Amino acid sequence: MKDFEISALPEERVSFSRDLFSVPVIVAALGYFVDIYDLILFSIVRVQSLKSIGLAGQDILDKGIFLLNMQMAGMLLGGILWGILGDKRGRVKILFGSIFLYSIANIANGFVDSIQSYAVWRFIAGIGLAGELGAGVTLVLETLPKHSRGYGTMIVATVGVTGAILANYIAKYFDWRMAYFIGGGLGMLLLIMRISVYESGMYKQIEERDISRGNLSMLFTNKKRFFKYMNSILIGLPIWFCVGILITFSPEFAKTMNISGTINAGEAVMFCYIGLVFGDFISGFLSQYFQSRKKIVLMFLVISSISIALYFMLHGASSSLFYLSCGIIGFAVGYWAIFITIAAEQFGTNIRATVASTVPNFIRGTVIPITFLFQFAKKYFGILNAGAIVGALCMLIAFYALYRLEETFHKDLNYIEE
Fold it and tell me: What is the 3-state secondary structure (H, E, C) of 361-388?
């Protein structure tokens, strides 16, 4: 009997509902909501904010890429920092430590008046943003029973990505500085919920034992663990190629493709994340229905390949069709919840938070080499061909990485890595 068919007994329905609407799931989902709000807000207000501090023309693209890379560099560092601390000090402490840091950085972003200060605070924001998702997903996976943990991460991801929709709405009706202030305020409000969250039982079982916890080197000193770790990261390449290149720089792509009307990056982000909401929900549900993570990720990688190809065939299309394409791309890369779940389920309790925090942030950090490769190729092949080449490379790597990973749907997570 498939896991979703739980309606036979009323007490099972009650237990299932209690699992999915437990405090850890709610707090992790809301934390990711604010996380995504801040993460995507820069892409939405990039042009407006850079013009406000005196930039124009090509500098808006070039400095925008620089600031995006500073944010992603912070996330790379933060992913390592929060992941190790999550295994050494506990999931709950890290969950709220990261929320506090990115909330402060969000508020500070509203006061910047130069590229230098903007870069510093995007870097600090990146460090803070790196911890919430990994700690939240780890807490949910270790708190919920096996039959419902996939639904738990589905809710976290689905609720979380709607933060991008709110970010676009806020940026449309408020000044970019106020949009940052609002994001910081939302994070501070979320901290109040800390008192209701309890630590993972699996983590408590090993907390007082003499076990190596949060040891990042364990991922690199064992060949099998290393390749499992790298493949867990690489299956997410298409997600951040699409969001970091095709959507973030959609105005530039649209101009080259002679799209009728003006394309706004905020609108492109909003449509992409509306698609992501549905993609995350459906991919999470299907992974439970078919009791397989790998099959559903494969399906979404195929859809992603098709949606990217369609994006580059929009020459002369209307702005409405272009935004629809952004939504389709968002749906296609909406396997983020399964992506994090697969990574976390691959490893033992003593390094699970390290993996769950570093994997999503390392894949976000791949925006740096992806944008570098994109800019390099753009000099020789033009923006459209460069985008197509980089996109094809990301897809091929993701397909191979998925092929090399093991299925984890039925895996018991209560074990440690030796």
Answer: HHHHHCHHHHHHHHHHHHHHHHHHHHHH
Structure token digits, residue 49: 């904010």
Q: What is the pLDDT of residues 234-275, one digit of tens each?
A: 999 999 899 889 998 899 999 999 998 888 887 888 899 889
Nearest to 55, CA basis, from 113, 124, 126: 113
**Burial of 24: CB neighbours in 10 Å, binned 0-12, 13-18, 19+:** buried
Provide φ and ψ at 113, rounded to 5°: -135, 10
- Closest by CA to 129, choosing from 33, 217, 47, is 33
For 205-245, write each residue's pLDDT tens digit: 776 777 777 788 888 888 999 999 999 999 999 998 998 89
Q: Nearest 5 degrees, angle CA 170-CA 95-CA 412?
A: 120
> Distance between CA atoms of 62 and 284, rounded to whole angstroms?
37
pLDDT in tens, 122-156: 999 999 988 888 888 888 888 888 777 888 888 88
Pull the structure tokens for residue 116: 């230098």
* Strands, E assignment, 1-135: none
Domains recognised in the chain with CATH numbers = 15-194+216-404 (1.20.1250.20)
